Amino acid sequence: MSVYYNAHKTKNLFDPQSSEVFKLSRSKIDLFLNCPRCFYLDRRLGISQPPGFPFNLNSAVDTLLKKEFDRHRAQNSHHPLLAAYGLDLVPFDHPQMNEWRTNFTGVRYLHPATNLLIFGAVDDVWVDAKKVLYVVDYKSTSKESEVNIEADWQIAYKRQMEVYQWLLRQNGFKVSDTGYFVYCNGQTDRVAFDAKLEFDVKLIPYTGADDWIESTIVAAQKCLLSDNIPDSGPDCDYCQYVAAASGVNKIQPGLF
Q1: Which residues contact 6 (CB under 8 A, 6 or more apart)?
Q2: From CA 181, how far away is CA 161, in angstroms rounded?
Q3: What global pTM score does this model have?
Q4: Three-class SS string for the chain?
Q5: Using CA atoms, how far apart are residues 178 and 60, in angstroms rounded to an integer?
Q6: What's the pLDDT at 57?
Q7: 91-100 long-range contacts, Cβ below 8 Å, gap at least 24?
Q8: Which of 63, 76, 156, 195 has minimal Cβ neighbours within 10 Å of its Cβ?
Q9: Residue 1: its pLDDT value, please?
Q10: For 198-215, how does the pLDDT look when each residue is reduced to its tens digit (9 = 90+)?
Q11: Parallel, antiparallel or unpaired: strands 133-141 and 178-186
Q12: Per-residue pLDDT reduced to its tens digit, 37-85
């Protein structure tokens, strides 16, 4: 029988007997909120959800945006997008900026009550004249309708920003409740491709609230400490698929 998965290859599994610091990313906190069962299987047992496809075009947009804002960071100048929205903000120039934006490193904080090292990689941070920081997240898509952050599934975007705000506050920075999504929408109504993809760029403000994070971290640790696999989230597609597939013992004609 072929082996398609080896749990022992998975790194950073939680050991309830260990006193070592355990790293918990922003995305794993979101996984816990979506489905405690999948979170437990992932971080405690090393059984992860199937990986999604990489969004290489989205990554390219992120990289180019970072380069663009970095030019203004070096000059302490206003980006035209911020000027267009009447915002007196500039990209924040800090020695740890590259570290904060690096995956698997990011902005970090050791939560003393749980010994969990919470971390997350920001896209950007802006600052005003009073040294107040504003978390910025880049998003890209291609759709005919106007982009927004009102869909139910976009709660993940909002939680993401709130965790970043919380992390920076834990590191001693004064952070505004207001964050910004730089949302790039690829246009398909052009006459031709001509080896380039054009985007409309919209700046969407969002007022975050991080009062849920502390209790969620404590609950996530309690989940990991348990020897019992928790129930799945009510809307977890992965758990619903497994449950449905487990009930099929023999393929019947016309079933699929």
Answers
A1: none
A2: 9
A3: 0.90
A4: CCCCCCHHHCCCCCCCCCCCCEEEEHHHHHHHHHCHHHHHHHHCCCCCCCCCCCCHHHHHHHHHHHHHHHHHHHHCCCCHHHHHCCCCCEECCCCCHHHHCCCCCCEEEEECCCCEEEEECCCEEEECCCCCEEEEEEEEECCCCCCCCCCHHHHHHHHHHHHHHHHHHHCCCCECCEEEEEEEEECCCCCCCCCCCCEEEEEEEEECCCCCHHHHHHHHHHHHHCCCCCCCCCCCHHHHHHHHHHCCCCCCCCCC
A5: 26
A6: 85
A7: 91/124, 91/125, 91/126, 91/127, 92/124, 92/125, 92/126, 92/127, 92/133, 94/125, 97/73, 97/125, 100/125
A8: 195
A9: 31
A10: 899 999 999 999 999 999
A11: parallel
A12: 999 999 999 999 988 777 888 899 999 999 999 999 999 999 999 999 9
Place of tokens 């699929």: 256
**Residue-wise pLDDT tens digits, 118-156:** 999 999 999 999 999 999 999 999 988 899 999 999 999
What is the pLDDT of the chain when averaged over all its residues?
Answer: 91
